[in-house]
Amino acid sequence: MGRASYAANVMNARHWSYGVNINKLGKPVDHLEWGMTPQTYNASYSPSNNEITLPAAQFLIPGIKDDQVDDAVAYGYVAASTIGHEITHGFDDEGRQYDLKGNLKAWWTPQDSAKFAQRAQMLADQFSSYVVLDSLHVNGKATLGENIADLGGIVLGIDAFKKTQQYKEGKKINGLTPMQRFFLGYALGWLGHERDEVLANQILTDVHAPGFLRVNGPFSDVPEFYAAFHIKKGDKMWLDPDKRVKIW
């Protein structure tokens, strides 16, 4: 490694990383090893290890100091979209198939499995109805795990936020109620712009729905969202009660 060649540094780093992975073959799994650095803006759930990885960077709102973030925004931005999301992955359409030791094992009752499948299909149908470009729809089946995790994370985040003093006091900040700020805090993590070509590629190759639908999609299933923003029949994000999905 050195300052002479960036390309050589990248190749050397990849060669080293490859050697580290090859050296793991035939050895016990190191359950203390992290697959991400602390500064990585991401998070993950591993069903085989039954573990969640939450790097420090994921808890920071870019450009905003911690002391300027109220609980409502923090619980939406972190507790719902990250912590609750990753927890729910353990009980989504794939994660639920692994037991506490990370082995593929059917540990649910047949009745619970059937009810889960029915509700999961409702969510898959909901997302498959979303048109992203022209006639290009979201693949509700391919994105089901992430959509379940988003919805479950929001529900968990709300349950946690309702225990805070800010929620109980109900005081407005900048004209917004605590619950409104919670939902806006969640949406902060998905602000962005993508070219049509990128969106089209994502629909065909990615298990995640486009960012704007990871906000509008699950919000449409959450009763607290309707109450917070006074959503009524005829509004764009309205779903009839019998179409709203509740898995967890």
User: How much strand content do the residues show?
Assistant: under 5%
Helix percentage range: 40-55%
Low-confidence stretches: none
User: How would a textbook summarize the main sheet?
Assistant: 2 strands, antiparallel
Instruction: State the order of secondary-structure elements, H for helix, E for strand.
Output: HEEHHEEHHHHHH
Taken from the alpha-carbon principal axes, the silhouette is: globular
Alpha-carbon distance between the two ends: 50 Å
Counting DSSP E segments of at least 2 residues, the number of strands comes to 4
Strand order of the biggest β-sheet: 1-2
Return the average pLDDT rounded to an integer: 95
The gyration radius over C-alpha positions equals: 20 Å
Total helix count?
Answer: 9
**Secondary structural class:** mainly alpha
Would you write up a description of this structure?
With 248 residues, the chain is mainly α. The protein is 46% helix and 4% strand. The strands form two sheets. It has a two-stranded antiparallel sheet with strand order 1-2. A two-stranded antiparallel ribbon has the order 3-4.
Summarize the structure.
The protein is mainly alpha-helical and 248 residues long. The protein is 46% helix and 4% strand. A hairpin with a 4-residue loop joins β1 and β2 (51-53).
Topology:
Layout lengths: L5 H17 L21 E3 L4 E3 L17 H19 L20 H19 L2 E3 L2 E2 L6 H18 L3 H5 L8 H11 L7 H10 L7 H7 L3 H7 L19
Antiparallel strand pairs: 1-2, 3-4
Helix pairs in contact: 2-4, 2-6, 4-8
